[in-house]
From TrEMBL:
Residues 4-73 form the Bacterial purine repressor N-terminal domain. Pfam families: Pribosyltran, PuR_N. The keyword Cell inner membrane does not apply. InterPro entries: PRTase-like (IPR029057), PRTase_dom (IPR000836), Pur/Pyrimidine_PRTase (IPR050118), PuR_N (IPR015265), PurR_Bsub (IPR010078), WH-like_DNA-bd_sf (IPR036388), WH_DNA-bd_sf (IPR036390). NCBIfam families: purR_Bsub (TIGR01743). SUPFAM superfamilies: PRTase-like, Winged helix' DNA-binding domain. It comes from Pseudalkalibacillus berkeleyi. Residues 111-256 form the Phosphoribosyltransferase domain. Homodimer. Belongs to the purine/pyrimidine phosphoribosyltransferase family. PurR subfamily. Keywords: DNA-binding, Transcription, Transcription regulation. The lineage of its organism: Bacteria, Bacillati, Bacillota, Bacilli, Bacillales. This is Pur operon repressor.
């Protein structure tokens, strides 16, 4: 289709935002808009300057016959700080206190506006790592996993507590719950994860990290690689942490079940940005 430059810029921007981390050739855009590659290059330069200036992301140019341009979502430190402050405010509500020091988080995880912001934060943090799959455990971590996966442009695999007939044969392992010390089982369909895959593990809430440790052990059974660990909320009141290399958005520092008071701080996400990770 032949478009005016203003319309072409709008459609180019929309297309790039909808196809993150995908290498797109200039020939594709040239044929799509019926324009010379030189014109497309000028348009992409305008978009690149605006994306990077506004903190939307990077446009990376790959030279050569097989090259093109790739959009990588990015979240600035200021934007990340604003999202974290929003989450701290939401999580600090006294109505969220549950027995055992847990929090009611279903409304936050089910809010697309909030969870998509967090998804872009994690996608930005892990943008420089090779990630083929996002993994989480059913069920509350699923919305977060899909939010992150949409910005990384990779599929999601879901670990469950038991196998399902509709998923075919599965791989199962037993693991020890970090908080209750109970033996539990998790299963993953054999067809869902290829050998050698680089996997980003995500969880909505982490106490001692038993569930995440179980997922990392499951990766070994599939001969897959751990690319990183992301947590929406971590609990600080833990004697022994079963995982140590993870990125958290918020940290639950205190829960008074009697007076229903909650203290929430920022996790280590901003520290990782400051350290250039």
């Amino acid at each position: 289709m032949k478009l005016k430059r203003s319309s072409r810029l709008v459609d180019l921007t929309r297309y790039l935002l909808q196809h993150p981390h995908e290498l797109i050739s200039l020939s594709f855009f040239s044929e799509r808009y019926g324009s010379a590659k030189s014109s497309i290059s000028e348009d992409l330069l305008i978009i690149k300057e605006n994306f990077e200036g506004q903190g939307v992301g990077w446009l990376v140019t790959v030279p050569g016959a097989a090259g093109g341009v790739r959009y990588i979502p990015r979240v600035s430190e200021q934007e990340a700080s604003e999202v974290i402050e929003e989450l701290k405010h939401l999580l600090s509500s006294s109505e969220r206190v549950l027995p055992g020091g847990y929090l009611y988080m279903t409304d936050i995880i089910g809010n697309p506006k909030v969870i998509n912001k967090v998804g872009r934060m994690f996608a930005s943090m892990f943008a420089d790592r090779t990630i083929d799959v996002v993994m989480t455990v059913a069920t509350k971590g699923i919305p977060l996993a899909y939010a992150v996966a949409s910005y990384l442009n990779v599929p999601v695999v879901i670990v469950r507590s038991n196998s399902r007939v509709t998923e075919g044969s599965t791989m199962s392992i037993n693991y020890v719950s970090g908080s209750t010390k109970r033996i539990q089982t998790m299963a993953l369909a054999k067809r869902s994860l290829a050998s050698g895959s680089n996997v980003l593990i995500l969880d909505d809430f982490m106490k001692a990290g038993g569930t995440i440790k179980g997922m990392t052990d499951l990766l070994q059974e599939f001969e897959a690689n751990l690319a990183g660990i992301g947590v929406l909320v971590e609990s600080e009141d833990v004697q022994e942490r079963l995982v140590d290399d993870y990125i958290s958005v918020t940290r639950l520092t205190a829960v008074d079940t009697k007076d229903k008071k909650i203290q929430v701080e920022a996790g280590n996400y901003l520290d990782r940005i400051s350290n250039g990770e």
